[in-house]
């Protein structure tokens, strides 16, 4: 449109929103008022970087309730990007819309834990109050179903995206529906999270005011950074190596090796990133850390910066966690004001700062390279590896990405000493792990245990399963189902592997006797179909074919014999695992395969 | 960095300059590796996954088109795992995309690798015009149970020069690269949407005539499946008069400006039915402008042709 001078117009509120994110346009060439000098000098030097694209799109979405053609063209001009490309990025993310605006959009979670807690009734109420899913209905509202919102401990959950207002989490959903149409709906305070177990990583959660730096310091805060500054970068890595810390984001990669690899890279600058995208269904442990102990993440990221030679860190928080984002942003601001971030930290020759970035609704952006793409203002399409992030990561520079829980271990290790941290180790795992336990347990919450604790004991910590256990989903949608026979399994990576399962993201969803596992398996198949980025053929089309197959089995209408359907599934699973670009496609068949093995799909013949 | 690397492909030693891809190394040895999203003149995007092969020590299969050969690598191009993934990529594509105009090579691979797209059930009804463009990311309606979803949808005809038939699109990203960064620097089209609904689009799916498109047709030049097609070929195919066996290809130089682009005139029944430029032509690398690609039919006669009609 730009090319032939017919760019549609934006509205003043949208332009103001852009100015707020991007600053006022510096020249007429970038959309500002025309000045004398612009008539003979066209300079793009002053333009904001492309990495402002996602923050700007989120601001526009909040302002107008949608992305209008006028605003997209304005934004494209301000960032010197083609409108087609801005549209391509905007249309990738589930929380950005290009259709008619709504006063508010209610995202009703219908994922596994919420379904066990009555999500279907919530959706039915929304349909009655507003109208058909996806359309702007009564009161100018819209509702849609949503994948897991990371509030499974307070199921059923919903996420309210309001035009002109802050987003809100409704968990559990309890407001009368008419209340949303009010200009200022009451902000419900969610119940405090249940936490339990050994409580080393959780020591301050629900104990120390998460907005008070002095309280954080009074409880051991920033002792680790002082020690890290004394030890120096190699010393920090040595402690992590002695602690044998491995990543908690799913792949269990040794953290010391990752940090050392980044530190060694000659290319500069280096970056560190905290992966707070936590979108694996059934997972909410990082949320509890982010909301309950935000200074610890900021301290850990600062130590990561020191150890890897980075001067800038990013925290990438999923958009569905507004409280976590606010708490982290607050912690960063206070830390900066008090000299824990910025130049010459704690009086040493060490500069480091942190920027908080928000996702826009895409599970795949938890994959480390897709996360870089999102920060850089691109579609969240994972990159082929190698090159690995330690060599070419964010902005093409050496980058250490770590999960929030992994980082939470770092200050602990430096305070205890690596060897002491590893002292009480179980066979293949040191330290404790957080498990997000939800579904049919008495006290859903986050529980911290060692690898020797069994699955049954973990469920016991969560108050037990009063309605019995038919199956447990371990590791979320990318994980696997196990049967009640696995309750005596220790929660160690090796023990999980021996049962063809994985601890993955630490999600533990308990299904009671009589639960509809067919629906759960179907939801997981839909999840992968909806969340595939669409880049590579095995995943883009394979996840669709898998979902169609699961639906046929669930409805008892297989194509050909059950054996033929099983062969078709095995063919799909092998190709998705072998040939997909990223972990999403590679793990998409896991849960379905385990359900088939355990006979959990009703219409399929082998099951009940 | 060493200047050359030595590795083995199917047990045969090969020495190539450092930075050479596995695909190039295979081609030097005369080993066929099928490719769809790869084109010599563009940066590899490694998305179709047809070229995958086994590399000793790697858990997943590796795309030959983008992965550089490394010292001591043991590459295997024809194992059951490799053949399985290639068959599935072809089968999955054929189950969703109309590969009917993708050329004889694709047809041969479909047969050779034993792709059976009908295993996924009968195709679902086609989507109405524009329906696929309007889908919200993360919300995919799905096909009726028992059918397989496809890209079937009406062809986009919004200008006099070329059509976009996205039910033939394998999403190889080539047209986007040729329109933007790697050739034309026009950026009229980009990848939009997500998952199975990912697609090639202008901003807000406006017609090409309202987009930044300059009608160079470079996207048509790189499209491997016939999803992008000049109007005349499209119409002849529809009428059933398209006959490649009756066509001749004549190389010449474009008469319009001083750049001197190599043109290849594809002529059937004494009419220029298509103009292309060879990928290895020094001046063009296969790319042309609107004049070369669409403007030389004046040599036929002065009478108006079907090309001149509106949408
Ligand atoms: C589809 C997909 C989603 C992911 N989501 C997350 C996530 O939400 N949080 C996370 O920490 N890691 C996630 N990961 C793993 C990251 O890619 C990466 O391995 C991890 O952040 C590394 O941190 P760690 O070494 O501390 O575990 C995801 C991976 C895939 C393939
Ligand atoms: S595996 Fe799926 S999510 Fe990952 S790159 Fe391929 S299409 Fe995208
Ligand atoms: S239209 Fe053609 S060139 Fe473009 S992505 Fe589709 S198949 Fe590739
Ligand atoms: S919040 Fe609904 S399933 Fe997790
Ligand atoms: S040709 Fe290598 S992935 Fe497409």
Secondary-structure map:
The complex is a heterodimer of chains A (608) and B (311).
Chain A: H1 12-22, H2 53-64, H3 69-79, H4 83-90, E1 104-109, H5 112-116, H6 119-130, E2 141-146, E3 158-162, E4 168-170, E5 195-197, H7 213-218, H8 223-243, H9 255-264, E6 270-276, H10 285-292, H11 294-308, E7 310-317, H12 322-337, E8 353-358, H13 368-375, E9 399-403, H14 404-416, H15 418-423, E10 433-439, E11 445-449, H16 455-461, E12 471-474, E13 480-482, H17 493-498, E14 507-511, H18 517-531, H19 537-540, H20 542-554, H21 562-579, H22 583-587, H23 590-598
Parallel strand pairs in A: 1-2, 5-11, 6-7, 6-9, 7-8, 10-14
Antiparallel strand pairs in A: 1-3, 3-4, 10-11, 12-13, 12-14
Helix pairs in contact in A: 1-2, 1-3, 2-3, 3-4, 8-9, 8-11, 8-14, 10-12, 11-12, 11-14, 18-20, 20-21
Chain B: E1 4-9, E2 12-17, H1 22-28, E3 52-55, E4 62-63, E5 74-76, H2 80-96, H3 104-112, E6 162-164, H4 174-179, E7 190-192, E8 199-201, H5 218-222, E9 228-230, H6 231-239, E10 247-253, E11 262-268, E12 271-276, H7 290-294
Parallel strand pairs in B: 1-5
Antiparallel strand pairs in B: 1-2, 3-4, 3-5, 6-9, 7-8, 10-11, 11-12
The complex binds flavin mononucleotide (FMN), iron/sulfur cluster (SF4) (2 copies) and FE2/S2 (inorganic) cluster (FES) (2 copies).
Structural class of chain A: alpha/beta
- CATH fold assignment of the largest domain in chain B: Ubiquitin-like (UB roll)
Overall radius of gyration of chain B: 21 Å
Helix proportion of residues of chain A, in percent? Answer: 25-40%
The spatial strand order of the largest sheet of chain B comes to 2-1-5-3-4
> Looking at the structure, what is the overall shape of chain A?
globular
Q: What is the general shape of chain B?
A: globular
Q: How many distinct helices of chain B?
A: 7
Bound molecules: flavin mononucleotide, iron/sulfur cluster, FE2/S2 (inorganic) cluster
Gap between N and C termini of chain A = 58 Å
Find the count of extended strands of chain B (DSSP E, 2+ residues).
Answer: 12
Radius of gyration of chain A, in Å, reads 24 Å
Q: In total, how many domains does the architecture of chain B comprise?
A: 4
What is the second-level CATH architecture of the largest domain in chain B?
A: Roll
Main beta-sheet annotation of chain B: 5 strands, mixed
């Amino acid at each position: 449109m730009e090319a032939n001078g017919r760019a549609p117009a934006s509205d003043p509120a949208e332009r103001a929103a852009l100015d707020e994110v991007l600053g006022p346009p510096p020249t007429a060439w970038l959309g500002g008022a025309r000045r004398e000098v612009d008539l003979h000098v066209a300079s793009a030097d002053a333009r904001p970087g492309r990495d402002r694209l996602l923050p700007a799109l989120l601001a526009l979405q909040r302002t107008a309730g949608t992305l209008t053609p006028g605003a997209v063209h304005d934004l494209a001009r301000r960032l010197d990007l083609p409108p087609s490309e801005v549209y391509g990025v905007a249309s990738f993310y589930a929380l950005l819309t290009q259709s008619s605006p709504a006063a508010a959009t209610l995202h009703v979670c219908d994922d596994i834990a919420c379904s066990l807690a009555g999500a279907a009734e919530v959706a039915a109420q929304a349909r009655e109050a507003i109208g058909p899913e996806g359309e702007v209905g009564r009161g100018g509202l819209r509702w849609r179903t949503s994948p897991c919102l990371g509030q499974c401990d307070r199921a059923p959950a919903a996420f309210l995206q309001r035009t002109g207002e802050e987003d809100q989490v409704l968990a559990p959903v309890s407001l009368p529906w008419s209340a949303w149409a009010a200009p200022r709906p009451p902000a419900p305070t969610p119940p405090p999270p249940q936490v339990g177990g050994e409580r080393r990583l959780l020591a301050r959660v629900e104990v120390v005011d998460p907005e008070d730096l002095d309280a954080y310091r009074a409880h051991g805060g920033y002792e680790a950074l002082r020690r890290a500054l004394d030890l120096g970068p190699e010393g920090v890595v040595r402690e992590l190596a002695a602690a044998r810390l491995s990543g908690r984001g799913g792949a269990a990669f040794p953290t010391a090796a990752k940090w050392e690899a980044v530190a060694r890279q000659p290319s500069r600058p280096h970056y560190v990133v905290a992966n707070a995208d936590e979108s694996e269904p059934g997972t909410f442990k990082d949320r509890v850390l982010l909301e309950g102990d935000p200074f610890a993440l900021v301290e850990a990221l600062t130590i990561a910066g020191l150890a890897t030679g980075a001067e800038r860190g990013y925290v990438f928080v999923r958009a569905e966690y507004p409280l976590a984002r606010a708490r982290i942003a607050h912690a960063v601001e206070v830390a900066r004001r008090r000299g824990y971030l910025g130049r010459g930290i704690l009086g040493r020759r060490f500069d480091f700062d942190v920027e908080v970035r928000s996702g826009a609704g895409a599970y795949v952006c938890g994959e480390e390279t897709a996360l870089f793409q999102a920060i850089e203002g691109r579609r969240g399409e994972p990159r082929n590896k190698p090159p690995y992030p330690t060599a070419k990561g964010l902005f093409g520079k050496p980058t250490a990405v770590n999960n929030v829980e992994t980082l939470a271990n770092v200050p602990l290790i430096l305070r205890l000493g690596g060897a002491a941290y590893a002292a009480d180790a179980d066979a293949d795992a040191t330290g404790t792990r957080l498990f997000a336990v939800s579904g049919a347990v008495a006290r859903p919450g986050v529980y911290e245990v060692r690898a020797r604790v069994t699955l049954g004991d973990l469920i016991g910590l969560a108050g037990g399963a009063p309605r019995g256990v038919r199956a447990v989903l371990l590791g979320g949608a990318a994980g696997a189902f196990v049967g009640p026979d696995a309750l005596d399994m220790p929660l160690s990576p090796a023990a999980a592997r021996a049962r063809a399962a994985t601890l993955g993201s630490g999600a533990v969803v308990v299904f009671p006797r009589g639960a509809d596992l067919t629906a759960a398996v179907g939801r997981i198949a839909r999840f992968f179909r909806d969340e595939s980025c669409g880049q590579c053929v095995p995943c883009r089309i394979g996840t669709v074919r898998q979902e169609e197959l699961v639906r046929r089995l669930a409805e008892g209408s297989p194509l050909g014999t059950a054996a033929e359907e099983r062969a078709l599934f095995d063919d799909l699973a092998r190709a998705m695992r072998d040939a997909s670009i990223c972990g999403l496609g590679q793990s998409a068949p896991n849960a379905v395969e385990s359900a088939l093995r355990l006979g959990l799909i009703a219409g399929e013949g082998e099951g009940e | 960095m060493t200047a050359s690397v030595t590795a083995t492909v199917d047990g045969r030693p090969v020495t190539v300059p450092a930075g050479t891809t596995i695909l190039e190394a295979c081609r030097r040895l005369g080993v066929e590796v099928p490719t769809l999203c790869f084109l010599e003149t563009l940066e590899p995007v490694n998305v179709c996954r047809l070229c995958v092969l086994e590399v000793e020590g790697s858990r997943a299969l590796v795309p030959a088109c983008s992965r550089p050969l490394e010292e001591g690598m043991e590459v295997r191009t024809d194992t059951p795992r490799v053949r399985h993934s290639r068959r599935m990529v072809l089968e999955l594509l054929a189950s969703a995309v109309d590969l009917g105009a993708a050329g004889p090579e694709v047809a041969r691979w479909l047969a050779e690798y034993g792709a059976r797209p009908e295993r996924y059930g009968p195709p679902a009804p086609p989507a109405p015009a524009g329906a696929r463009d309007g889908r919200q990311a993360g919300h995919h309606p799905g096909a009726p149970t028992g059918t397989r979803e496809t890209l079937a949808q009406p062809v986009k005809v919004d200008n006099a020069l070329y059509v976009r038939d996205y039910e033939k699109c394998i999403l190889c990203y080539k047209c986007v690269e040729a329109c933007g960064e790697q050739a034309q620097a026009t950026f009229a089209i980009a990848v939009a949407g997500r998952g199975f609904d990912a697609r090639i689009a202008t901003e807000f799916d406006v017609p090409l005539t309202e987009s930044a498109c300059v009608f160079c047709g470079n996207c048509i030049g790189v499209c491997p499946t016939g999803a992008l097609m000049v109007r005349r070929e499209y119409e002849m195919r529809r009428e059933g008069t398209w006959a490649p066996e009756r066509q001749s290809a004549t190389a010449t130089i474009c008469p319009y400006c001083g750049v001197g682009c190599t043109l290849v005139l594809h002529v059937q029944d004494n009419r220029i039915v298509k103009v292309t430029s060879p990928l290895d032509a020094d001046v063009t690398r296969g790319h042309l402008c609107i004049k070369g690609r669409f403007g030389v039919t004046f040599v036929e006669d002065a009478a108006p042709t079907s090309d001149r009609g509106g949408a």
